[in-house]
Amino acid sequence: ALLWKAQGISEAVTGQLWAFGVVVEVALMWLVEPWRRRVGIGPWILLVIGAGAAVLRWTAMSFAPPLWLLWPLQALHALTFAATFLAGVQIVETLAPRDSQTAAQTLSSVLSAGVLIGGATALSGPLYDRFGAGGYAAMAVMSAAGLLAALPLRRKLA
Fold first, then answer.
1. I need a labelling partner for 87 at 20 to 30 A (CA). Which of 5, 65, 110, 155 fits?
2. Contact at 8 Å (CB) between 39 and 90?
3. By the 8 A CB rule, do 120 and 142 touch?
4. What pLDDT is attached to residue 134?
């Protein structure tokens, strides 16, 4: 929001951009997720699509794109968050022993929503202060690392 304000984007439009990303995310979870499971698209594909979308989204954001481009970039939130979240839930469901799935889901949530997002949030302020929009490049690098980490899982999740 700070960057968009610096670009001259009003608070009202900033709110609309955030809401738009959430609406697209909910639509993916509500409409696409049941279809995906029904047709058999596995979590690995969803994870790779989400990570690839994250690399694209955060790389583009690092160039402080104009308002017209922010709308499709915000729509990518459905993939960068929702797709990777849903893939993560199904990956834990697939890989964890049946009697440990609850603990495994809890650990996954603590690590992803707690440790990783908390750490990224703590670093985002100093990155913005030093690099402005270029700080988003760190998120692109994190996303690329996640994509690379997902590649060896293909055989286990196919």
1. 65
2. no
3. yes
4. 96
Scanning the structure block, which residue is given the tokens 């700080």? 135
The pLDDT assigned to 37 comes to 86
Q: What angle do CA 130, 9, 122 make, to 5 degrees?
A: 35
Tens-of-pLDDT digits for all 158 residues of the chain? 889 999 999 999 999 999 999 999 999 999 988 998 899 999 999 999 999 999 999 999 999 999 999 999 999 999 999 999 999 999 999 999 999 999 999 999 999 888 988 998 999 999 999 999 999 999 999 999 999 999 999 988 86
Q: Which two tokens stand for residue 88?
A: 């993560």
At position 149, the amino acid (one-letter code) is A
Q: How far apart are alpha carbons 28 and 137 in whole angstroms? A: 26
Q: What is the DSSP string of 57-108?
A: HHHHHTT---HHHHHHHHHTHIIIIIIHHHHHHHHHHHHS-GGGHHHHHHHH
Tokens of 103: 């603990």
Going along the chain from its start, the domains and CATH numbers come out as 2-157 (1.20.1250.20)
Inter-residue contact 82 to 36 (CB < 8 Å): no
DSSP label at residue 26: H
